[in-house]
Amino acid sequence: MITAIRHTGLVVADLDRALAFWTGPMGFKVARLMEESGPHMDAMMGLIGVRVTTAKLTAPDGNMLELLHFHSHPHEPSWNGTPFSTGFTHIALTVANLDDFCQTLAPHGVTFPAAPQTSPDGSAKVIYARGPENVLIELVEMLQ
After folding, report:
1. Which pTM was predicted?
2. Which domains does the chain possess?
3. Per-residue confidence (pLDDT) for residue 82, from 0 to 100
């Protein structure tokens, strides 16, 4: 029986850039940075010779995002970066003020496909953003 969602993993090609983004304008904090390898990693992932740097990041509410940068296996983009791609497509984050936060992110290379939209029931203002390495981020401001 599941008791909680532990974290969401995000494989990145450029760990320094990803850390700067997620701990800078996004406001996450580094909880743990580790170099991982060995038989247990190989067995867990079903790979041989795994060498990976992992960074566990915490959001203000305590939820965790794990950045993974593989040194042992080449970066092979397998996701086309669309909201309708099969598999995990985006991370959704609640923000206090959507308009202000969008202005904060824009200088960091984040792009927005459209202006913020208000949900049909008027409870939320929502926008998709495209961050580093084509990652989709849904930003939500609760209005009610």
Report:
1. 0.88
2. 8-70 (3.10.180.10), 90-142 (3.10.180.10)
3. 73
